[in-house]
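Human: I wish I could look at a protein chain and see how it folds. This is the protein in question:
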Amino acid sequence: FNKPGSLPPSEAFTSSFLILTIISVPANLLVCCAFLHSYLVEAKLLTADIILCHLAFANLMVAFTRSIPQTLAALGYVHFFDDVGCKVSLLCFRAFRGLSISLTCLLCVYQAVAISPATSLLASLKTRIPQFLMYIIVFLYLLYYFTSVSSALYAVSSLFNNTIPPYTFNLEYCFVSYREYFAYIFVGFGVMSRDLVFILLMIIMSGYILILLYQHGQKVKNIRSSDHSQKGGRAETKASRAVVTLVILYVVFFGVDNIIWLYTMTVSRVALLISDIQDFFATLYTSVFPRSILIFFSS
């Protein structure tokens, strides 16, 4: 399994990917099991719980399809996939990575709708989102699987003469080799544009939540009861910090990921170090967001 003639893997990246895997797999698995136990005991889940459960499952699958293979590659083990395995692995990673974005967006939209006043334009969605939730989730699954097929078709386990041609992403254990520049650009900008829509919507809804929390906090200050104002203030402060953390983490992680992606669109050969950095940020949220989202709901 050792890659012939390759340099020893970077200790920094090896440790980083290993830590991400050790944290993300148990954390997301624990969230899935917790909601499964809740469903078996109570025979139902709240709307936010269903979204959160699917989000944890998506993060878990990202860890299985990218974090674990990348960790093995960082440790110096490669060629554990054939061509079909590379295509399936890349398809699942692209799909579940996108699902993590869109489901978090759905989570933010639902939370904004849930706390919006009765006079808000979003008020009509309070009953419609729970009613059509499963249809929305199934649509997101189908959307990301069908739109991820194009990039997965270019995945292979090895290259002819071990020579990396232009427009090829080197994952160490697999290669994504585009035969022409048009496909390289088309797939890259297609993936980025698709995810960017959900990220922008998530930022807008999170901003709306912060506005509502601020307005509510101002009303609480006018209440004479000190106990009520203190409890309300603590709750609103905690919720505000959780929302801001959620938005900042997404903007930073996916912002860095997409900036690197844009850079790779301008060069014909992507350095292995750049690919490792992009992979790190593409999987970093799987270990961070379970805690961030749980804090968000516990507030």
